[in-house]
Design goal:
Blueprint lengths: L2 H20 L9 H22 L5 H7 L4 H7 L3 H26 L2 H29 L3 H26 L8 H11 L8 H16 L7
Length: 215
């Protein structure tokens, strides 16, 4: 973290602390919905910034681009590590939530395909911010693993729904599909890996459907 940002963060925390002592309600006057919108804007800007410029991205610049004051950013994310972790975890939470939405609005096989394609996008995002995570976070594996179960549960639910409807074969294991997609991350250095991963999704979807016997 830059020294100027560290000093700025400390001053802001002291100011907020003094405000809280004098008037406990002073630091929580903004509507909760407004605070949530600020947080979301910060995360969206930070995701692009970390992917573009890496771990040395200026937090003050992120605040400026998100149209919030530095104090608002530091109040939500006291450190650069907190912000970067939140960016990754929020993207994984969105991916998990998409599984439920797709399951409620699409046919089972289409819901699974749409989610798997979204997972490819998530892998691409992870590859972009991975250098920043490795540079800033002490043990990035813990950050990745914290979302592992959440994502596995999401794909498991989609497969289970498809098996129940008859759109997916009973012997299809959600873990196999998950591992196949994660495998795409190991070739992410290849220029056209995303196109290849998307083709893989279609292959996996075709192989997951029951064989239709023709007379």
């Amino acid at each position: 973290m830059r020294l100027s940002e560290t000093a700025s963060g400390c001053k802001l925390f002291l100011s907020l602390s003094n405000m809280a002592k004098k008037n406990p309600r002073a630091v929580s006057r903004k509507p909760r919905a407004d605070a949530q919108r600020n947080r979301e804007r910060i995360l969206n800007v930070a995701k692009e910034a970390f992917a573009r410029a890496g771990g040395d991205t200026s937090l003050d610049d992120i605040a400026k681009q998100a149209n919030v004051g530095p104090g608002t950013l530091y109040r939500h994310f006291p450190t650069r590590e907190d912000l970067l972790k939140a960016v990754y975890r929020t993207e994984m939470e969105k991916l998990a939530a998409a599984a439920q939405k797709f399951g409620e609005t699409m046919q089972p096989i289409e819901a699974l395909r749409a989610w798997m394609l979204l997972f490819v996008d998530a892998i691409a995002m992870k590859q972009l911010i991975a250098p920043a995570l490795n540079a800033i976070v002490g043990d990035p594996k813990k950050v990745f693993e914290s979302s592992h179960a959440q994502i596995q549960e999401a794909i498991r639910g989609l497969v289970k729904r498809g098996v129940k409807s008859g759109d997916i074969r009973k012997d299809v294991d959600a873990s196999d599909l998950f591992r196949a997609l994660v495998g795409a991350a190991h070739v992410a250095s290849i220029p056209d890996w995303e196109q290849s991963a998307r083709r893989l999704v279609d292959i996996l979807i075709a192989g997951s459907q029951p064989v239709k016997l023709t007379r």
